[in-house]
Amino acid sequence: MESDVSTWWVLIYLLIGAATIPLVRYLGPVAIRGYRLEIEYDNDVSRTNVIYRILSPALLSLCFVFLCEAVFCRFGAPIPTQRWMPTLFYWAILGLIKLLARINIVHPLAYIIEATCSALLAFFLEHFVVSGYYSLGIDILDQSNFAFQMEVAIFYVAVQMAITLAIRYRYRCTHDDYGKHEGLASTTSAEPHSSSGNCYGTAIDTSEKTLFEYERKFGSLLPKRYSQDLLLRTAFFAIMAIEDSNRPEAWRTLERIACLLGIAKTTGIMQQRSDSPLSDEESVLLAAGYIERMWDSYLKMYAKSAECCSGNHLSFSRGWYEYDYAPLADTLGRTFGSFYGDYCGTRLLNAGWVFRQVRQFEERNRCNLLPRTVIAAGTVFDVEIGWLSSFYGSWSGAYTVQSPSMPEMASLNHFELAKRNAMAEDVSRCCDGLKNQGCLIERVTFADGAIALVQFMCKERLPLECVESGFSYVN
């Protein structure tokens, strides 16, 4: 046998490491195969789970190696002795898969401990067991052998370290050595429960300490609008809490290295896409504008929804908007999973629990003395406000925008124009023409490409030639 490893054997070891990944999943517990328990460190089967993940790659890859060696020996080819290399490749490939697929790892250090322990076990198997077998025969497996005992001790300690690290990180556990409940662990955040079984809030740190740290480090980077709009600010830090928990700081460092190699595309605490690695601050600056656009889209849907239109909870003007805080906050709490879907790519996550925790934090910062209404800068309905004659407007339905009542104009006559297959540009030209004739636009109903109805007040009925082409009076 040879100690040097040729390029061909490195490639064979690489293929063996890749082939071991599906085999480990298939031969392991069903939950492992489905990746439902791969991040579990704190239940009744956690130790067995971790032991399997550490031991199985070393043993299964060794079986593949023996099979390849048997084939090569038959043809008289030289056989190297670095049988531990496929295990190393296994963990490297598995980590790369998780990085590219954005699969959450509870704690990168726990993963590194598992990988290191597994590779060391493979090395010890090669050095002490396999090589010793050729020298001592079956006696190498005697439990009194020092090498075997050392393997068992290192293996058990590493398992316990991985479990403890993951539990402390997931639940932010601190050990109170001097308290009256000595020996018990305390946690800073509770685990949410969903009747549907989707506990997405698990492992999302919304502790007051963490949220204060977000405010301290990144609050000054946000645009002025985030200070005006309390719910926009709450949504931003809720998304930050989720992204930070999914990609802890140590993992983000690895992502920046992967970005330099062209492997990772999103970096920073807010996981923003960029051709070059982003710092946490740079990702916050990029995410601020993106989440503002998400919020504009959400306000547009909310303003036209039945929940808002039934009470006129949102009004708007050119360059600003106003909404009733409590109704919109409750609605956003119920629909935050769908709102967050615009950021992460799926609307199926039960992320409302995270939003509600951050909302309580923001409200506590204001001593729970909350405004009835919120006014903030934003160009949400600039096109629609241009149709009306009033300073501000609101939606009375999914398709109807209206001015507030103007009792001083009650003496004017009311008229209505209609056009089929109308476009937004047609409505704008019609409203501008009516305003130039001294008319006041009080209501516009518009369904793009279907119908446009313009209700206005004027002293007398205008001739059709003075009205935008295609519009006609409704009797």
Question: Which tags fit this structure?
Answer:
475 residues, alpha+beta, 3 domains, nine-stranded antiparallel β-sheet, two-stranded antiparallel sheet, 53% helix, elongated
Order of helices and strands: HHHHHHEEHHHHEEHHEEHHEHEEEHEEE
Unreliable sequence segments: 30-38, 173-199
Strand content: 5-15%
Question: What is the domain total for the residues?
Answer: 3
The proportion of residues forming helix, as a percent range, comes to 40-55%
How many strands, what sense, and barrel or not for the largest sheet?
A: 9 strands, antiparallel
Q: Which strands sit side by side, in order, in the main sheet?
A: 7-6-5-8-9-11-12-10-13
SSE-based structural type: alpha+beta
Secondary structure blueprint with pairings:
Elements (H helix, E strand, L loop, with lengths): L6 H21 L2 H4 L12 H29 L10 H17 L6 H29 L9 H26 L2 E2 L9 E2 L21 H11 L6 H4 L1 H17 L2 H12 L5 E2 L4 E2 L6 H25 L1 H4 L4 E4 L2 E5 H20 L7 H14 L7 E5 L4 H6 L4 E4 L4 E3 L10 E8 L3 H13 L3 E8 L3 E8 L13 E2 L2
Antiparallel strand pairs: 1-2, 3-4, 5-6, 5-8, 6-7, 8-9, 9-11, 10-12, 10-13, 11-12
Helix pairs in contact: 1-3, 1-4, 3-4, 3-5, 3-6, 4-5, 5-6, 9-14, 11-13, 13-14
